[in-house]
Amino acid sequence: MNRAPQLLSGTAFALAAGLMWGLVFVAPLLLPHYSPALLAVGRYLAFGLICLPLALLDRLELQRLSRADWLVAVKLTLVGNFLYYLALAAAIQRAGNPLVSVIIGTLPVIIAIASNQRNAARDGRLPWRLLAPSLLLIAIGIGCVNQTEFSQLAQGETQRYVEGALIALIALAAWTWYPIHNADWLRAHPDRNPRVWATAQGLVTLPIALLGLGLLWLWEGRQGGFAMPLGPDPLAFVGLMLAIGLFASWGGTLCWNEASQRLPTTLVGQLIVFETLAALAYGYLQRGHWPPALALLGVGLLVAGVIWALRVRPSPGPKPVH
After folding, report:
1. CA quadruple 52, 56, 58, 59: dihedral positive or negative?
2. Short-list 83, 274, 276, 275, CA closest to 177
């Protein structure tokens, strides 16, 4: 069976998801006076509201989801949405976009290592001797980009920079867990529409985000000094949260679900590098200058690693023991 169309369409969906997910890396820089918690709550409140009319269109499919399916959606939301973006926003506001982008950019390596062992029986096993060159190229590329940030670090910013890097590791852990477990559900339910699963995750974010907003409102009311619920720049906050909710949260999740149903988890994991590339591009646009030569080299190596990985075909994994 020719899998080339599946590989091509899956890669295209992963690219679209990366371009949309990259938007979330610039929001904390555009709204520096907003706390990471409020940014996370605002993003997923918008996501949930956007999913309400979509849920009406897919109400029959949503009714097919069992209680266990909804519990999975809640777990994915708490870890892959709220915990991830809370840590990501906090890290970016401390250490800047490029450093955090390249830390998150290690995901292709980490997910490939985790999935290659964990999902070998289902997806086949990518031989390490063939996979290693692509992982090495990706790792070197990330190192090049990271080196440019360290060289430009101003005096006195080291502690805040290190704090951002450490918090980014929490985001890294959350976003490693999410795509693997999300793909588990999608591959176990090939008859389900990925769009409906994206909408289901959006629906469960709404009550969680409302609860979070209420708690933040009470907290800020006691602390004082911040105009809740929309902050000092309400138009920018609402507009940016709606844009991210529509494109990054719903649209990105939809495209990623489509890719996850078409590609082995190990390859899908490596294609998260598209998010890193988009985040870096948006970050340098926000800074208003081109990336240094070493950073461009790193980006080239990242792309080369992805292309190399797509040329590797999985071999049959071990048969499950009954």
Report:
1. positive
2. 83
pLDDT in the model for residue 321: 47
Give tens-digit pLDDT for 17-57.
Answer: 999 989 889 889 999 889 999 999 999 998 899 889 989 98
In angstroms, rounded to a whole number, what is the distance separating the alpha carbons of residues 264 and 259? 9
In angstroms, rounded to a whole number, what is the distance separating the alpha carbons of residues 318 and 307?
27
Q: Which residue has the higher pLDDT, 232 or 88?
A: 88
pTM of the complete model: 0.80
Mean pLDDT for 111-126 is 64
Q: Which among 176, 159, 12, 7 has a CA at the least distance from the CA of 87?
A: 176
Nearest to 56 by CA among 183, 180, 199: 199
Q: What is the DSSP letter of 36?
A: H
The C-alpha atoms of residue 270 and residue 267 are separated, in whole angstroms, by 5
Distance CA 65, CA 83 (A): 24
What would the 3-class secondary structure string for 240-282 be?
HHHHHHHHHHHHHHHHHHHHHHHCCHHHHHHCCHHHHHHHHHH
Task: Provide the CA 35 distance to its chain's centre, in angstroms.
Answer: 20
pLDDT at 322: 45
Domain ranges of the chain: 4-310
